[in-house]
Amino acid sequence: MELLPSQMAALRVFVALAGQLRTPPAPGLAEQVRVAVFNRGAGRWQLCLTRPQMESVAYGFWLHRLTGSASEANRFSREYAVAHHPGL
């Protein structure tokens, strides 16, 4: 999967807050964020994620949306058809 720099920044915050969250990032997500590669031509970060990790990213972007920016979550949902829906 590929993430824009703004999405990667939000994902890094989510991973950094792992110890403070009731629902922490999926196992292995922090490592995948750490080893992500930036593709200069595409201007995107490249990661290899499992389905549970993708769902965790969607949750992280949902949390980020609560701080005022929905663009990261909206783009992720549109491009990868994975979104977090609280209460479902």
Written account of the structure:
The model has no long low-confidence stretch (mean pLDDT 95). This protein has helices spanning 5-16, 29-34, 51-66, 71-80; strands spanning 2-3, 37-39, 44-46. With 88 residues, the chain is mostly helical. The chain is built from four helices and three strands; from the N terminus they run βααββαα. A three-stranded antiparallel sheet has the order 1-3-2. Helix 1 crosses helix 3 (51-66) and helix 3 runs antiparallel to helix 4. The relative contact order is 0.21.
List the helices and strands and how they pair.
Elements: E1 2-3, H1 5-16, H2 29-34, E2 37-39, E3 44-46, H3 51-66, H4 71-80
Antiparallel strand pairs: 1-3, 2-3
Helix pairs in contact: 1-3, 3-4
User: What series of H and E elements makes up the topology?
Assistant: EHHEEHH
Major sheet: arrangement of strands: 1-3-2
Helix content: 40-55%
Number of helices: 4
Distance between the termini: 25 Å
Low-confidence stretches: none
Overall average residue pLDDT: 95
Structural category: mainly alpha
Round the Cα radius of gyration to an integer and report it.
Answer: 12 Å
Number of DSSP-assigned strands = 3
Proportion of residues in extended strands? 5-15%
Instruction: Characterize the overall form.
Output: globular
Let me know the largest β-sheet.
3 strands, antiparallel
